[in-house]
Design a protein that fits this description.
The protein has about 675 residues and is α+β, with helices and mostly antiparallel strands. It is built from 20 helices and 18 strands. The longest helix has about 30 residues.
Length: about 675
């Protein structure tokens, strides 16, 4: 564990100017980024007596091995540079107000010929419009079900759309008038796009104009004695009004604003955001974050504004989304110290003036109190979940250290699991946990070579060998250049530092650059001994190994004849089980994907000269193996890349020799 005094900058070398600083660990990985009006005052506070530091700050400074800084001219520059560094390095100790990918949104695929409406979770894509986020997926489906009566747009997947186009019959939604059935040509592509654009306009807040238009159409239909059409428009109006009622008006002046509130204690904070557009609540989201240092509400607001809206602007730009990422007003409980600088920065992101203010009275104050109650409730619920409790995670890591006899707490744990069915489609997973939490961006999966000739023990050994050979290759011959004064220029360095495990071109960590403190394998003594033997053969001595056996949840260590038995109520055992179960889930998911892909084309494997590309071409053309079986010789010959001889081979493989002849004759007879 590094001693903070070993890398403390010399007295007087830290400037008193404003700037941005970053702490790095012994391998060069950036673990914390911050900004300060006075770099000297802020950085000196980190090198005070360790016993007086905040628990997370103490862990950060004892994990770090180096500190660097960059002097900037204005606070707006500091905001921008801090955001860029956090985004680039993803520091593990920083508060991260990420766009929570678990929140569902309503996606509209405007980049397709026939746009589709569906519930979506995940990163933004180009050419797709997003509405939300919503607190629950059922809320989207309920709203969508109401609106499809008025806007009968496509909601099916590409496979379902293609299949119904091939059979020439719409799905159930098409029969009950909740889809205009473009798959069978009931409407043109242009008309279907108009329906989707009207739907998007309605969800964007232009509800009054849509309702007035339907009222006029209903009146015209009634005057023209078109009573059936008038009745249909009346029902459509009712559906629209019910959908609008679900979005209660909270701000009578039609304001576009985000309302932010916090609930916090010394170690953590919960944040809730209500997105109000056109006076109505259009979405809601929330996070719980760990505090790295003593942080008041004003500092939480400052970090939230810079990171959250910077992320939103980046997402909108990447997805080529015309939706405005920053509202006109951001209502917060307390103004940050540099509110004026943040307003200028936000205005630059939006392209027009943005106000950052504290509501004092009226509807906005009442809404802010509602958001605050939501934040307090979310914080209370979070405290009841021990998986997210910092105290529980710290206790779990300490228990693992004590029971396994490790030199330090295993802040990074990796786990390997093997998945197969009777030795076929053998795959492996590698999952990563840092500070007791899953780090899914660093998960890896492996296809096992020569799987038929080896069992689980040999497969474990192969994965360990491949993973740590990559680690040695990516760090071979590299040294950590600590530099001189510690100051860096973000745009140009005369002698760029080469850091162990850091890609010198991108500045990002390499895929396998960081070894775990603890490697867990799913299994007992044979699996553990195999993993330990591979590490020893590679000369790696600073990675601890253990195995977790499913039967009695025993923990096995290399060269020990008896397992370590942890209490069933142990937080350490609970964490090891979560790591093992996550590796098992990830391995099974990958195995099912490979098995499903193999089963899809297995019926065509015996066709001589038929490779993967032409197999996929056949399946894409006919939609399924069942439809391919029903096809005739001439139909198969029409597929690009298939001649008559190859088509005959396909039919022979699917039906056998006689079956192929019968199928051909039958098809010709029908023609």
């Amino acid at each position: 564990m590094p001693d903070p005094s070993s890398y403390r900058p010399a007295t007087g070398t830290i400037p008193e100017s404003p700037g941005v600083y970053r702490f790095s660990d012994p391998r060069g990985r950036v673990i914390y980024v911050g900004k300060a009006k006075s770099l000297r005052q802020r950085l000196n506070s980190y090198f005070a007596d360790l016993s007086g530091l905040h628990p997370r700050t103490r862990r950060m400074v004892t994990t770090a091995a180096k500190v660097e800084w960059t002097v900037v001219g204005t606070e707006v520059e500091a905001l921008q540079l801090e955001y860029n560094w956090i985004k680039e390095y993803d520091p593990r100790f920083n508060v991260r107000y990420r766009d929570d990918k678990s929140y569902p949104v309503l996606a509209v695929t405007m980049n397709e010929e026939y746009p589709r409406l569906y519930v979506y979770r995940g990163p933004r894509r180009k050419g797709v419009r997003y509405f939300g986020p919503y607190a629950h997926a059922w809320a989207i489906r309920e709203t969508l079900d109401l609106l499809l009566r008025v806007f009968p747009a496509r909601t099916c997947s590409a496979g379902v759309f293609k299949r119904h186009g091939q059979i020439g019959r719409p799905c159930l939604l098409g029969y009950i008038d909740k889809c205009s059935a473009p798959c069978v040509g009931n409407v043109t592509a242009e008309r279907h796009r108009e329906i989707v654009e009207d739907f998007s306009e309605f969800l964007s807040g232009r509800t009054d104009a849509m309702i007035r238009r339907l009222e006029r159409d209903m009146a015209d239909a009634s005057e023209n004695l078109e009573f059936e059409r008038a009745a249909r428009l009346r029902d459509d109006l009712g559906a629209l009004r019910r959908a609008v009622e679900k979005q209660t008006v909270v701000l009578g002046d039609g304001t576009d604003a985000d309302v932010v509130a916090f609930a916090e204690d010394e170690l953590e904070a919960a944040v809730q955001v209500f997105h109000v557009r056109g006076g109505r609540v259009r979405g809601q989201r929330g996070w719980v974050i760990d505090k790295v240092e003593p942080t008041d509400t004003a500092q939480l607001v400052e970090r939230f504004v810079s990171q959250f809206y910077g992320e939103q602007a980046a997402l909108a730009e990447a997805a080529d989304d015309a939706t405005q990422p920053v509202p006109k007003e951001i209502l917060v409980p307390v103004l940050p110290d540099d509110a004026a600088s943040q307003e200028r920065w936000l205005s630059g992101l939006r392209g027009s003036r943005v106000q950052l203010r504290v509501p004092q009275r009226g509807d906005k104050r009442a809404l802010a109190e509602t958001v605050e109650r939501n934040a307090k409730e979310a914080f209370a619920q979070h405290k009841l979940r021990r998986a997210g409790d910092l105290t529980a995670r710290s206790a779990a890591l300490q228990e693992i250290q004590d029971n396994l006899g490790l030199d330090s707490a295993p802040l990074r744990i990796e786990c390997i699991d093997i998945s197969h069915v009777q030795g076929t489609n053998v795959v492996a997973s590698l999952v990563v946990f840092e500070d007791g939490l899953a780090r899914k961006s660093e998960y890896r999966r492996f296809e096992i070579k020569d799987a038929a000739e080896q069992g689980d023990v040999a497969s474990i050994a192969e994965v360990v060998r491949r993973r740590f050979r990559r680690y040695l290759a990516e760090t071979a011959g590299e040294t950590l250049d600590t530099g001189g004064s510690g100051e860096v220029d973000p745009t140009q360095e005369a002698e760029p530092a080469i850091r162990t495990g850091i890609d010198p071109e991108t500045g990002r960590p390499k895929k396998f650059a960081y070894p775990p403190n603890l490697l867990v394998v799913d299994g007992a003594k044979p699996q553990v001994d195999a993993a330990a033997a591979e590490l020893a053969a590679l000369g790696i001595t600073d990675v601890a190994v253990c195995g977790l056996a499913k039967r009695l949840e025993e923990v096995w260590l290399p060269d020990d004849e008896d397992p370590v038995i942890l209490s069933r109520s142990s937080e350490g055992l609970y964490l090891l089980q979560r790591v093992r179960d996550e590796a098992h889930r990830f391995a099974i998911t990958y195995h099912r994907q490979r098995r499903s892909k193999g089963m899809t084309t297995s019926a065509l494997d015996d066709v001589p000269g038929l490779g993967p590309a032409r197999k996929q071409a056949l399946l894409k053309h006919f939609g399924s193996v069942r439809k391919l079986r029903a096809a005739g010789l001439d139909e198969i010959s029409e597929v690009p890349g298939f001649g008559r001889r190859t088509a005959e081979s396909v039919l022979a493989a699917l039906h056998g020799g006689a079956g192929a002849d019968q199928e051909t004759v039958g098809t010709e007879g029908r023609r």
